[in-house]
Design a protein that fits this description.
single chain, about 120 residues, Immunoglobulin-like
């Protein structure tokens, strides 16, 4: 399955990618899918039309459509810089602090806002 990207509306709706510290920067809303993958949902540089991703900054953790539940989100880059993994993390439990969501978990109503950096 895949993440769904939605560009955040701006006064100039034609431009969703800008520059930040010499890199491309894009603000997107990312929605998880109905079958979460253990180790995170993947976003590739190619999905953005870029050659490389540097990382992402979480602006708002993913929240369900009703706005009543949220999950933390950790972003991890692969060593080649070709993709990011967005890992959904739950609150502390008896298993340990902030365990990752389990495989095949339905997070399709959860959307978070991120700044993605790359080139």
């Amino acid at each position: 399955m895949a993440l769904t990207l939605t560009d955040v509306a701006t006064p100039n709706a034609a431009q969703h990618t800008g520059t930040m510290l010499g890199m491309k920067a894009r603000i997107v809303d990312i929605t998880f899918d109905a079958s979460y993958l253990t180790t995170g949902e993947v976003l590739t540089a190619a999905q953005l039309g870029w050659a490389m991703v540097i990382g992402a900054v979480v602006l708002n953790d993913p929240v369900n459509a009703a706005g009543t539940l949220s999950v933390g989100c950790v972003v991890r880059k692969n060593t080649a810089g070709s993709q990011l993994a967005f890992q959904a993390m739950y609150g502390p439990t008896s298993v340990g602090p902030y365990p990752e969501a389990t495989s095949t978990n339905d997070l399709s109503t959860y959307t978070g806002r991120f700044i993605v950096l790359g080139y």
